[in-house]
Amino acid sequence: MNIPKKILNEIEEFCKLNKVKDVDKFMLSIFQTGFNVEKYGNAPWKQEIEKIVEKEVIKEVPVEKIVEKEVIKEITVEKEVFITDDKEVMKLADELNLLKEEIKMKEKDIFSNAKEMKLLNNDIESKKKEITSLTDKLEKVNKSIKDKSPPPDFYGDEKKGGWWGSNLLTRK
């Protein structure tokens, strides 16, 4: 790899000033660091940021006959900490298990209801077929009744006399 002389001179001067003995190793580490920054960006991992907050607290402490003022510098570090309540987690887990069991029971009920509905639908279909069959038979009987002609005239075709067994002389 060809490194421009200007950059090479700057690196060598930096190494002399900072008393770096192995220049090649230093250049390789710089090259690796630059490559990693280019590849992953400046901060590829989530970093925890700590804030340092300085508070000045003035306390008056009474002492026998002498009152002294004490200045205390307090440094607090703010950090997010997640606290879990194991009892609550267990309670929620139990509730989840109960709900899962309830879902299973509801699914079984739905399945059994679906079977019942299928059986009822089959019964309905068979009853419809039976009704259709009986309706056809009734129509045949009605048709045969309509097709039957009145009994023949005992006294002839002129239709002047009465019906068989009738004492009427004329039909109206």
Q: How is this structure best described in words?
A:
With 172 residues, the protein is α+β, with helices and mostly antiparallel strands. The protein has two domains: 1-41, no CATH class; 84-172. The chain is built from three helices and two strands, in the order H-H-E-E-H. Strands 1-2 form a two-stranded antiparallel sheet. Strand 1 (51-62) and strand 2 (67-78) form a beta hairpin. The mean pLDDT is 78.
- The count of DSSP E runs of length 2 or more, i.e. the number of strands, is 2
How much strand?
5-15%
First-residue to last-residue Cα separation: 133 Å
H-E string? HHEEH
Major sheet strand order:
1-2
The largest β sheet comes out as: 2 strands, antiparallel
Roughly what percent helix?
A: 40-55%
Indicate how many domains the architecture comprises: 2
Please tell me the overall pLDDT. Answer: 78
Q: Gyration radius, to the nearest Å?
A: 54 Å
Structural class: alpha+beta
Report the uncertain regions.
none
Tell me the number of helical segments per DSSP (H or I, 4 or more residues long): 3
User: Which outline best applies?
Assistant: elongated
Keywords:
14% strand; alpha+beta
